[in-house]
Design a protein that fits this description.
disordered C terminus, 2 domains, about 0% strand, transmembrane, Rhopdopsin 7-helix transmembrane proteins, 12 helices, transmembrane helix, membrane, mainly alpha, about 70% helix
Length: about 350
């Protein structure tokens, strides 16, 4: 490779352009995951929908379809804008990086910004809703728990509107002000997701401790496992947000890679939550009561297991393989369960 083939740009500018282009590639990969998850969620919700539960499933179908359309439009706008910068107008003074920074406000860029903004509102609203569901039944009043997240969500929406007006209009108010609404808008939205991730994980860890203490560690794992907590709390998006914020605050050009893919990663986290809801594995208002009062499943016991007993007699199990099997499990805790087959 000849050095003369390299554009006459600084190393920082070239690194920023690399980060932007790689961000478009990562965003395309994430969009592919979005497509797969969307059709999985859509198929599962549609198959389960009937006259009794359509009021629950239909809003979710409309929600995921709306966000999928927005993510598709965002991806199309990103691909087209990248093509303009790197191919059609690659001789723009300063290169593609300068094109990106100076040519905001063109129709294709406005389309991407509007779709990204609406997607972020819908995704943030979903995690706030999940926080409400998981904290229902808490001794602390719901309005106290949701006051701070609700205010942060409202502030994020308001700041997002200001940011959208700044990048899509040529109003003298926004051109004359020195305020850059990008930083406070993204910071509020990302901080909201990080905070909600923490409080949801803390709540699920509390549930996990209570269930394990009474029934044992094998019960309620579909609701309180590590994978369940990661999905329910949208931890994937929060981790991605932390990486972006760290690089952005350090003024590292690679942060462009993360910000380009941020919308699609957020949709992945949202669709994973909806998929668990469609599967019936997500946490609901009566999950804790249902798990604590559920009887141990005899289906989990392998046929042919022999009986055993503890030395202090606190646990007994008798089993026999064959027709008319009688199996009994007893626990000496306050909450005891007995299953008979």
């Amino acid at each position: 490779m000849l050095s003369s083939w390299t554009p006459d740009e600084s190393s920082e500018t070239l690194l920023a352009e690399k980060g932007w282009l790689q961000g478009a590639v990562v965003s395309a990969v994430a969009y592919g995951i979005d497509v797969a998850l969307y059709f999985m969620c859509f198929h599962l919700l549609l198959r389960q929908m009937n006259r009794t539960n359509y009021k629950k499933h239909l809003p979710l179908l409309m929600y995921i379809t709306t966000t999928f359309i927005l993510s598709t439009l965002f991806m199309a706008a990103l691909a087209n804008f990248t093509q303009l910068a790197f191919i059609q107008y690659r001789n723009y003074p300063g290169g593609p990086n300068a094109f990106e920074n100076n040519m905001f406000g063109i129709p294709v860029d406005n389309l991407g910004n509007v779709c990204g903004f609406l997607t972020m509102i819908l995704s943030d609203g979903l995690v706030v809703w999940r926080c409400m569901v998981i904290y229902r039944g808490c001794m602390v009043p719901m309005w106290i728990i949701m006051l701070f997240p609700g205010l942060m969500f409202a502030a994020s929406v308001a700041m997002g509107i200001m940011w959208l007006l700044q990048v899509t209009t040529n109003s003298p108010y926004f051109s004359s002000t020195n305020i850059n609404y990008t930083v406070p808008y993204l910071s509020l939205s990302l901080a909201l997701n990080i905070i909600i991730t923490i409080v949801i994980v803390l709540r699920l860890l509390t549930y996990r401790h209570r269930i394990s203490k009474v029934l044992g560690s094998s019960y309620g794992t579909q609701y309180t496992s590590i994978a369940a907590m990661i999905i329910e709390s949208a931890a994937l998006y929060s981790a991605f947000s932390v990486a972006f914020l760290t690089l952005f605050l350090l003024n590292n050009p690679i942060s462009a890679t993360f910000i380009e893919a941020l919308t699609q990663v957020q949709i992945i986290a949202m669709l994973l939550i909806v998929f668990r809801v469609a599967q019936g594995k997500s946490w609901s208002q009566d999950t804790m009561t249902r798990v604590m009062t559920s009887k141990p499943s005899v289906q989990a016991i392998r046929m042919g297991d022999l009986g055993y007993g503890s030395q202090d007699g606190s646990k007994t199990f008798t089993g026999f393989t064959g027709i008319g099997t009688h199996e009994t499990y007893k626990c000496s805790d306050r909450d005891s369960a007995e299953a008979t087959v």
